[in-house]
Amino acid sequence: MAVKFLSPGSGVSGRGVNGRDRAERRLAVRMAAPSLVLMALVAAVPIGYALWLSLNQYSVRTAGLSRFVGLENYVSALTGPHWWAAFGQTFLFAGLSVSLELVLGTAMALLLNLAFRGRALLRTVVLLPYAVVTVVSAITWETMFQPNLGLVTNVLSMLGLPGGDVVWLGERGYAMAVIVLADIWKTTPFAALIILAGLQVIPAETYEAAELDGASKWQAFIGITLPLLRPAIVLAAIFRTMDALRVFDLPFVLTRGANGTESMSMLAYTQLRENRLVGEGSALSILTFLTVMAVSVVYIRFAGGNIRDVAKEEQ
Amino acid sequence: MDLIRRSSAFQEDTAPLATGTAPGAGNQRRARTAAAVAAAVAVGLLLSGCGGGAAPQGADQPAAADPASADSAAGNLTVCGGKDASGIYKGTTEAFTAANGKVTAKYTEIGATTDEARTQAVQRLEGKSTECDIFLTDVIWTSEFASQGWLLDQTKLVEANKERLIPSTVETTKYEDKYWASPFFTNAGLIYYQKDKVAKPETWQQLYSEAARAPGNSFVYQGKQYEGLTVNFLEMLYSAGGEVLDDKGEVRIDSPESRKVLDFMVKGLKEGSADRAVLTYNEDPARLAYESGNFGYQRNWPHVYRLLNATPLAGTFGVAPLPAWEGGKASGVLGGWNLAISAHSTNKAAAVAFINFATTPDWQKHVAMDFSQAPVNEDAYSDAGVLAKMPFATELLASVKGAKPRPISPVYPQISQAIYKNVYAVLSGTASTEDAVKAMAGEIKAAKASF
Amino acid sequence: MSILTAQRTTTAQAPLRKAPKRRLRGEAKLHPVVWVFVVAVMGFSLIPFYWLVNTSLKTGPSLSKGELFPSQPTIGNYLAVFQNPEFLLALRNSVIIAVVTTTVALVFASFAAYALARLKMRRKALILTLILSVTTFPAIAIAAPIFSIWREIGLYDTLLGLIIPKLTFALPLAIYTLTSFFREIPRELEESAYMDGATPFMAFRKVILPLAVPGLATTAILVFISVWNEFLLAVTLTTSPEARPVPVAIAFFSGTSEFDQPLGTISAASVIITVPLVILVLLCQRRIVSGMTAGAVKG
Fold first, then answer.
1. Alpha-helical runs (H) found in A114-171
2. What is the ipTM of this complex?
């Protein structure tokens, strides 16, 4: 990846290299412009607006009253207990769900890449959970774990396994487990699909070469497939982590943040929407935003993958 | 300049101290600014545009609804609120349109859940939207909406109708000696019980001890960490003689009564009076659990009556008002929905006419008969037609009349969170009663000190 | 090199018909252990889905029995959903929104991704970071300002008013995925196109895009589903059935009271709305497979 290729057209005579170069840069700008302009118009304005709101406080008792407080909202969020609790819980959730999703997603992608009768069925089936609206999937998991009535609790009791009589969503630890499970169920297909696509660009010859060398399947997987899959896995990891760190629907429906499941987004929601503490809530949104951004940048810089190569190509 | 003038002076007026504008107060202007700036893609410009707040202008009182205006009402009227589950909202707008002849009213669902409906209402009110003339408001929103100057003062209207309304329901529309909405229908908790297994509960103590006698007798209520838990806790606290805020608004929750009630609830969970699963229940899961036939008592709202009658439990259950605390009296917490006129309504006369219609004794009977909601008109409860459809109307009236409002404060959401989070911590065993009561009091004081 | 180009291109444009005739790589060797995995994966995906279907076949009291198999299955919920005119309208809205958004997102994103992956450009790292930042902001803080702006400029409660922000928030995923894909395509193929006198844009259209079909198909599925399921913007930016998409319409399904969740109908509707997704997956399947057979055929 790091190998520098000739720039397009550099071998072609005619106009000077510089002219070509400039034309190429112009084309790049023109091709990127529609997306960038749209994003700037629709996303930058609300983000900038929230940034401004976060530097003020707006009275919840007197209409129209507001005051500029600078960074006070940030200071009180960062020195209070709620932010850090939500921070820790969100990272716990994200760490658990994303790592399991990547492992499962890779396994799923390998299965989907195999050629066997029924593969089309498997591909469709595997994608079904991703198609279920998040709120509905939350309700489904809630009813599955409902004491006495739920599928899981019933089956566990019938089989005499532990957990049948546990009020899953009412206990610390168990509640987090249900939320992680629900997230894995719904979004592993996302990771699997991206990794599958990565798998498909690995040329078959690489395997054949390995087979000739007498490598076992496992060795071939660790030595060849996995490194070549890295860009796809990192890509899946970036987007899954970003989503997981902003998790809202699942804990909101399943526990309302009880039993150690309140996330950063829920905290921002409570302040912003329920309490209408617009300044404080916006500060929490910005903090969430910065946290997620920081994690993404770390991924891109250190986890590798071809997105990093793109980023390094600054010229 | 035009931008600034068009944003009504009203909001700033109520706050002579204003140093800037509320996020909502300036939303419209800001939005327009934003749209203009967006074209230039300059966030920086936007920020500076937001900074310049409008200077406070000469103060005058918020506009008031004029009862006489109803006679000349005409044109279109939009009523906005949450999901119209029982059909009462659409039913009322249609009946009003037919009865009035000059005004055409329609109902717009703006949020699927109560939370969402509030968010969407706030968004419209802050943005001075003229889309909705009337908002359906939960009884706990009154102080918040009124203090922000979003509503029309309905004092004259309520005074005129007061005679025929249940006083406790009128209280839910009051903020700082004025009425900001008219009660539409009310709500109060009831106890459903299995007549074959347990007796009608007279006291909470009796209910809990009977519930603990056999596993099939136990009690289901709403113990999830949410607004419903505040209601369930306050129902007991009020009957035990406790309170959250006193008449002067002082925090009174750090009391022996609070400790007594919390200990009682914890003991109930330990001894099996209530199944631990209640920690995950809001209204619907509680009802579904009770419908399985494995429980003796259920605390829920009146709507459950109709649903229970469609199950094999029909005929086996009784309905009772909430019990009293041993040695005390029965009490409850008032729910229900009010009709508030938006300060930005463009057809206030029609809004007044609609409210007059919705609160007439005749229509209030339909509220009960056609939509199974609790009327705010006391006479409706003794009407033969109503009693036929709602045999527990007498118990319901007792519950409604005995019920008290939740704390009245513009920061009610924060107060409620302080209550349900700490109560939940005690029930789930992660905090002691003592610590939780102290925390509750501290957090409520902090909430009241909000800017 | 041009031979490679030719071969790659033809295989990518994939005469799928050929594939079944050949024994696909690995078909014969599917180990029993692998079958166990296949069954496990299917089970994990299907069990909650089964529960959803199970719930959708129950009404009234049987919802509270917790039966693992519905004793009196009924399609009443499905009929109720289809008899609801607002749901059908919502289905139409969702299809329009998802199809338009996905199509435009693919066009915009493939342009941007090509520029990022292949062309010389200043400040790529900064651009990548900015693109990402669009999706890292908590959605709840974004919905309200867009609502105010949309009301001002008349986009509120329109399909276009939903398509624009959904497109915006779908773009980062699409751009990242496609950039990653384009990078995987060997440079030599474009080089030979340049040798033949192609311009960069022609190289993009004639070489990169055809080769990236599996990536485009994958991206299309991901974008389509995320747009299809998005709720918060949808509920904030619409009020009328004429603009409301499916997830919001489902949320508005009425039980008998504000506290009553009509579980049966919600489940039925949720099952129904996965059907378009299944169709999409089956359609894209051929494309994804074509990418795969490209490797297999060569072997």
1. 119-131, 134-144, 151-158
2. 0.84
